[in-house]
Amino acid sequence: ETGVTQTPRHLVMGMTNKKSLKCEQHLGHNAMYWYKQSAKKPLELMFVYSLEERVENNSVPSRFSPECPNSSHLFLHLHTLQPEDSALYLCASSQDRYQPYEQYFGPGTRLTVT
Amino acid sequence: DQQVKQNSPSLSVQEGRISILNCDYTNSMFDYFLWYKKYPAEGPTFLISISSIKDKNEDGRFTVFLNKSAKHLSLHIVPSQPGDSAVYFCAAANNNDMRFGAGTRLTVKP
């Protein structure tokens, strides 16, 4: 595997479910990101991790909980989501947090909350 | 607040002609600008970038122009090919922040 991978690619969950999204990067990067992409809206940065430490949390509701056990893996734990949380969730990585210029993205997880 | 704007949600161009995608930003602290390309069911991939010390960067069929005084950048694709059909995102960055536009869907017709 090369680049940035995400699983699952598609997820349908009810509002009372608990699920997790997984991201793995094989690039030796030190920074990882979670973005939300809603239709016709800019990519919204949710969380930033640098060397497994969360460095940014952009006013994201607590029903989204990130976890970065090591520099290669990033999780997004989901619980009691709302239908408006349905979106494409993208993971990205870059060499360093302070050089975010070229980020490498995974294919995304298409999340539908019913 | 939307610091990076792509005011055209879609653009349709004939194969062989030039495609021009536009992007405006509001924060003068941004000093690096990027274009990403996204195909359906794939994540965005980096296409081309430009530093604020330049006003033009060219890579094959792709050229990015930066007008700092107008806080405007554009991506030119010439000649356009059907395989260029995708959503194009512009992004503006500095040392600790990067913001994306909402994207422009380019369709290149054969």
Describe the structure.
- The complex is a heterodimer of chains A (114) and B (110).
- By secondary structure, chain A is mainly beta.
- Chain A is built from no helices and eleven strands.
- Chain A has strands spanning 4-7, 10-13, 18-25, 31-37, 44-50, 53-57, 64-70, 73-79, 87-94, 104-105, 109-113.
- In chain A, strand 7 (64-70) and strand 8 (73-79) form a beta hairpin.
- The mean pLDDT of chain A is 91.
- Helix content of chain B is 0%, strand content 57%.
- The model of chain B has no long low-confidence stretch (mean pLDDT 95).
- Chain B contains no helices and eleven strands.
- Classes of the chains: A mainly beta (114), B mainly beta (110).
- The A-B interface holds A 4, 6, 9, 40-43, 45, 90, 92, 97-108 and B 2, 4, 9, 32, 34, 36, 41-46, 49, 89, 93, 95-103.
Largest sheet of chain A: 7 strands, mixed
The proportion of strand residues of chain A reads: over 45%
The average pLDDT of chain B is 95
Number of strands of chain B: 11
Largest sheet of chain B: 6 strands, mixed
Which properties best describe this structure?
heterodimer, A: about 110 residues, B: about 110 residues, mainly beta, 6-stranded mixed sheet, 5-stranded antiparallel sheet, about 0% helix
Briefly characterize the structure.
With 114 residues, chain A is mainly beta.
Secondary-structure map:
The complex is a heterodimer of chains A (114) and B (110).
Chain A: E1 4-7, E2 10-13, E3 18-25, E4 31-37, E5 44-50, E6 53-57, E7 64-70, E8 73-79, E9 87-94, E10 104-105, E11 109-113
Chain B: E1 4-5, E2 10-14, E3 19-25, E4 32-38, E5 45-51, E6 56-59, E7 62-67, E8 72-77, E9 86-94, E10 97-100, E11 104-109
Parallel strand pairs in B: 2-11
Antiparallel strand pairs in B: 1-3, 3-8, 4-5, 4-9, 6-7, 7-8, 9-10, 9-11
